[in-house]
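User: Can you predict the 3D structure for this chain?
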Amino acid sequence: MKKLLATLLALVMLLVPVLSMAESAMTLDISLSNFNLTPFLEEEVDPSQVEVINDLMNALGLTVYGMENEDGSVQLGLSLNLSGQPAVTLDAQVAEDALLFGSNLLGSDVIAITPDELIETLKNNKDTLLELGLSEEDYNALMEQLPALFSDPMSGLDASAMDLSDLDLTATMEAVQAFGETVQLTEGELTEQPADCDPATSVAIITMDGNAMLKVLSAAMSDIMNTALFQNYTTLMNGMLQAQGEDEVDFAAAVQEVFGRLSVKDDVVVTLYADEYGDPVRVEYALTLIADGNEDDSLEIDGVLTRLTGDTLTYTLTNKLTVDGETADVVCHFILKSDTSFTVDFTATADDEVVYASMDAEIAENGGDLMFVVTVTDEDGNRDGMRVHEVISEDEITTMVIDYLPLEDDTPWMTITITVSENAEHAKLDGSNAVRVLSMSEEELNAWSEGLESTMQIALIGALQLLPDSVLNMMLEN
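Assistant: Here is the predicted structure, written as C-alpha cells:
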C-alpha cells in the first residue's frame, strides 16, 4: 500500500501544475539527433562505448500533450519515445466523477479513482504520506485543491501562476514618483567635445537622490516577488533544497534584507552629453554604495556609457569598481553590425586576472524560416555556438530546430528538434470498465498486481526492442 500511495501522490501532484497544457490543446514533441561526443573526448576512450552513448541519445524523444474533451474532462499525456516510437506512456484524465490513469504498462486496464476514494485515502494515510516526504503544508494545500481539481479542472489553475498578470506595481510607481521629485536637471556649458563618442552639441548635469533610487529598486523587487509566479518559483526552489537536505530560504526576505542594509553616500551625479537630436552620446556617473551605514565598507562605482557611429554602431559601458582600495574594470561592448547581426563582448580585469567572453548573433528571415546564430568565445579563444531555426507551418504546427555547434566546422554535435502542434487529436481514455484500485481489498489488490506483472514485462520487452542495435548488442555482451 505504501508504494501505491507514493505512486498515486506523485501522479496527483504532477497533474496540478501541467493542467495549463489542456487549456490550449497543445502537443509538444522533443527529439535529439546528431548527438556526437567524439570531438570532446580523449583519444584513448573506447570508440565502441562512444557509439553506444551517441546512438542511445539520438534515439531519445519525449511527447507531452494536453486536451479538453467535449464533456469538460481534461486529459494529459506523457510518452518517453525510443527510435521515434512510444516506449513508456502515461495518460491521465480529470473529470467530475473520477480521475483516470492509463499506460502501456497497464495494458488495456484503465485505473479509476473517484473524488471520495482519493480524499478518504489521503486522510486515512496522512502519517504514511508525511513519512514519504510530503510536508504538512503541502499536504494541507493538496487537500484544499482536490475538490476543485475534480469539479472544474481548469479552475484549479490560477492564471497568475503562469504569468505576471497579478503584478501590482503600485508601490513601485509611488517610489518612482518620490524619486522623480529628487531629480534636478541643470544645463551645462559644452567647452570641448567628449572623448570616444559621437559629436555632442549639449551637456546637462543631473543630480538625484541615490537612496530614493534604491527604494525604487526595492519596491520593484518586492512587487515582483508578491506575484504567484515568483511564489511558485520559490516553492519549487525550496522543494529542491529540501530534497538535498538543505534549509528552506525566504528569497523575498533575503532580497529586502540586502536593500535594507544598503545606502548611497551623497547624491548621485550624472553628466549627460547629447547630440543635435537630443540623443545621449556619452553618460558619466559615479556613486558610492555603503553597507550598514559603515563608510569603510563601501563600493565605489565610476561608469561611462558611450555611443560611437562608424561602419557599425557601438555602445560601450565601462565601470570601475573599487572596494577596500582594490579596483576592477568591467567593459562591455555592444556592436550593432546591421539590422540583423550584432556582437557583444565582455572583459573584466582585476589585478592580473582577466575574464573575457564574446558573443556573435545573427538573425535571418527567409520564407518563414527564422535563423538565429549565436557564437561565444572565451579568453582562451575556445568557441561554441548555437543555431536556431523556427518553421511555422499552416496547419498549426511550429517546429524549432536548435543546432549546437563546436564551430570548428558547420557540423552540429547535437540537434534538438521541438515541435508544437495545436489541436492535435489523441484517444480519449475509456473509464467504462475501469479498475477501482482504492476500493479493492488487500487480497484483490495483490491478485490484480500479480496479473499486472506479466503485462508490464511485455511492455518493457517491447520498449527494449526499440533501442538501437549498438545498445542491444552491448547489453547482450554484458
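Residues 442-464 form the longest helix (23 residues). The two ends are 35 Å apart (CA to CA).
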